[in-house]
């Protein structure tokens, strides 16, 4: 069985997910823009995976946006996104950026493209650097 490990930015929350990811979605909805502070969220979904908190479970807070299916779990120390177990929907949502182990899966869908920010549409000509430029 595949084992995925991850953590928050400060290292206070550590988790593992045993199982496979069913999908990898880039969501451009306005809720995801707000909760990531970016153009989109990058989330992996697992319907069969088992989420285990290895450290810091008591530091995980989940915010459920009223009258929506949108929720976000995060470390109360550093604010980093961590997995959400969406029990009512039957899956675990894992923010791709919190994984410490590499994944072979690439995004298989971009959703809510009607909400995509204008500044994120044509980025292929933006200057790129391997690290912080001097």
TrEMBL record:
Presence of the UniProt keyword Lyase in the record: yes
Annotated keywords: Lyase, Metal-binding, Zinc
Domain of life, source organism: Bacteria
Alphabetized InterPro entries for the sequence: CENP-V/GFA, Mss4-like_sf
UniProt cross-references to Pfam families, sorted A to Z: GFA
CENP-V/GFA domain span: 4-120
Coiled coil: none
GO molecular function, one term: metal ion binding
Family designation: Belongs to the Gfa family.
Protein name (record): Aldehyde-activating protein
Organism placement in taxonomy: Bacteria, Pseudomonadati, Pseudomonadota, Gammaproteobacteria, Oceanospirillales
